[in-house]
Amino acid sequence: MEKVKLTGNQRRLVSEVRQLLATLMLDPDAIIADEDVDGRTPRLELAKDQIIRSAVILKYVLMDEYLSAVICWHYFGKKRSFPRLWRTKRFKSFNYFILERLYLLQKLDLVKSIHTIPKYVSADLAALNDLRNGIAHSFFPQNRKRKPEWKAKSIFTDGGFERFLEDMQELSDFFVYRFWVGSPEDISARPKVSTQGTETNGGWAPERTVWARRGPAAS
Q: Could you say which DSSP state residue 207 is in?
């Protein structure tokens, strides 16, 4: 197998990722190489727990960001990009003093007052909110009355986590198709999006959408 050539920046990032895995004790190879044989199982379980929790929280903030973008487009339109809007005091104030104080379900209610949102989207976002709250506010979420489950399966099982990822992808596809690719009322003013995907049945199936509602310094 041909050796992969990396840039200097890529080599630095690989080193940093490996160091992070070691520092956070998430590297399975390092765990099983440890002489503490009895400690291997609990450490591997803790590593798995942390990775799954991180993934759930990341999906939560992604859905929160989707909702925020839809809200911003409603109040500020799509003629100006988000980096341009971030240069205005009005947009900054809206984000700092309104959006930042709204929880995911409150943002969902606002979006539902503006657009028609399918029931499965609302239901999965509500379930995501419950799941995120459980794992983010409890060291032992399994002891909570509402268990850390997704569609009646523990999020810490392969089946539960795989179904969770599938449903999160479906939610992402909904937001991309409905608000980024263009809806009937938005198609003429849709924002520019960098999307990689595949053509399917005459339509576009997004595999990855790169966009941001970030400020100029982060863009």
A: E
The predicted model scores a pTM of: 0.82
Phi, psi of 128 (to 5 degrees): -60, -40
Pairwise CA distance, residues 98 & 33, whole Å? 50
Instruction: Tell me: pLDDT of 217 over 70.
Output: no
CA distance 87 to 40: 51
The string of DSSP letters for 79-120 reads SS-HHHHTTSHHHHHHHHHTGGGS-HHHHHHHHHHHS---HH
Residue 132's pLDDT is 97
Q: Cβ distance 181 to 211 under 8 Å?
A: no
Distance, in Å, from the CA atom of 130 to the CA atom of 12, rounded to the nearest integer, reads 37
Confidence (pLDDT) at 1:
62
Record the tokens describing residue 179, joined without a space. 């608000």
Domain ranges of the chain: 9-218
- The Cα angle at residue 70 between residues 150 and 85, in degrees rounded to 5: 135
For 120-129, the CB contacts below 8 A with 24+ separation are: 121/171, 121/174, 124/167, 124/170, 124/171, 125/63, 125/171, 127/151, 128/56, 128/59, 128/60, 128/63, 128/104, 128/168, 129/60, 129/103, 129/104, 129/105
CA-based R_g, the chain, Å = 21
Q: Does residue 66 sit in helix, strand or coil?
A: helix
Instruction: Check whether 19 has a pLDDT greater than 60.
Output: yes
